[in-house]
Structure formats: C-alpha cells, structure tokens
User: Fold this.
Amino acid sequence: MRLLVLGGTKNLGRHVVEAALLDGHEVTLFNRGQTNPGLFPSVRRIVGDRAAPEALADGEWDGVIDMSGLLVRDVSLSASVLRDRCGQYTYMSSIAVYASKTTPGMTESAPLLPWPADAPEDHFTMDLYGPSKVRNESLLTATFGDRTAAVRSGFVVGPYNPDFGNWGWALAHNLPLECAARPDQPIQYIDARDLAAFLLHLTTNRIPGPFNAVSPTHTMTELAEAWRSAVPDPQPVNWSPTEDRFHLPHDGTNDGTFQLNNTNALHAGLHLRPHEQIARDYVTWIQAGNTSPDPPH
Assistant:
C-alpha cells in the first residue's frame, strides 16, 4: 500500500515506519525535517509544516498514519487537504481523552472530555492535551467517516521511547528500580513495537473506530517484579526516589485511567508481548550503547 506517515522519525513513529517498510509498503514521510533527518534515506520525504500542509495536495495514498497531530488547527488543516486523497486515516490519540479519571473498566464509549469554552485551537497547554485529542478525533471522524481509526494509548515502552526508560537503564547497570508511584497503583502500558504493528494493521485493513491500545492492568509491584526478572540478582525497588518519573497521584484520583478495557483492540488484532520480554529487550538495547530520551514532562 501507499502509506503517508505524518511525523515518523521520533519515538513511536520510527517503529511505525520500520514496520511498514518491513511489510513492503511504499512510505512517504511528511514532517519538518528537523528530527532525525537521516533516518530512512530510501523513503520519499515531503518537508513541510502541519500549519501549512499544501505540499500534500499533489499526492494520493491508500492510508495515512498521523503521529504528530496535536493542535486542533493543524489536524483540521491536514484533514481538509487529505479528505479526498487517502483511504484510511489512523490517528494516534491518547487515554487522556476520558472525562473520568477514576472509573475502572472504561470502554471506548465512555464519556470524553469536553472542549473548554474559548480555548484556542492554535495554541497548546497541558490542560488542553486531552480535550485536543478528543476534538481531533471528532473532526477526523466528521471528515473521513468510517475510514477513521483513533488509537488511544498511554505509556509507550521500548527502544527510542522515554517511558520506563529509567527502569531499563537501572537494570542494565545493576541499579535499583526507582518508582515514586504507590506499590498498588494500577498501571497499563504497551510496547512501541506492538503499538506500531497495531496502527499499521488498522490502516492496511481499513478497520474503523476508537481503540484502547493498552495492556491488561497490573499493579506497579507486579510490573516491577516482571522487569526485575529480566536480569540475574536484581537490586530491590526504591519506592521513595527523589525524582518522580511517573507523576501519578497517590490518592487514587487517576487510577481509572490505567484500568481501561482493551477488549475491542484485542478483537481488532492487537497483540501484546509479555512484560518480561519487553524488559529484556529494553535492557539489551541499553547495553548495546543506547540511551532512552528524556520524558516529555
């Protein structure tokens, strides 16, 4: 298939491109050319900005995978240009879309965050992250109808991704895992390779709908033990580090966000590798001389 990837050279995006190329698809990248410009030298590139997507007006693609859509204005502009130029449109959304942060077992039909009155569509603040993802999902569905998929995930783990990178580093250097979250904190995440494969699967098979692309829920204690099993004689967990990489409240006010129902995604073709394998692969990647990027917060 002819695939257009918006972004594609950073974190999860590079896994999407790698998976698409491995499957033999013809990939075009659209981005500003500023992040890892030397990646994928054989791939066609269109250099441009989401705020001015006119460079896309001359192409046609069987599918679009949008990895960089954040500002509502930018997503709206890209959608208007691509409306009649692509088949499936798959959007990388977020578990931050849900109105409730405490309800366990939420499916994709759970209430979503409203758009704040008078909020700017061309400016970003962290308060607008969830509402922006909701609004972008809505406008894409309005534009592309049942040719739209929205993939909602939270922590994304693996090579080139920041989440849980400190755990991989610690295990690779025989240091204690550090976790400021409470031991019984519920947590869900996904390996970047599994998420990339799912994004590609939805796009190439033209499967519509929103999907909670997350693992089953575990406690932080269970997850830490799974990761510690990846190396011999691991150090104990430090549950009181000076730096908080997770930023999860201890009072349960965000617990529901990490107890989402992933049944629809599993039925649609999401495959999840074991936590122990994720940890081993991450440790191996670090031991090969790589360093995970800093978290975005």
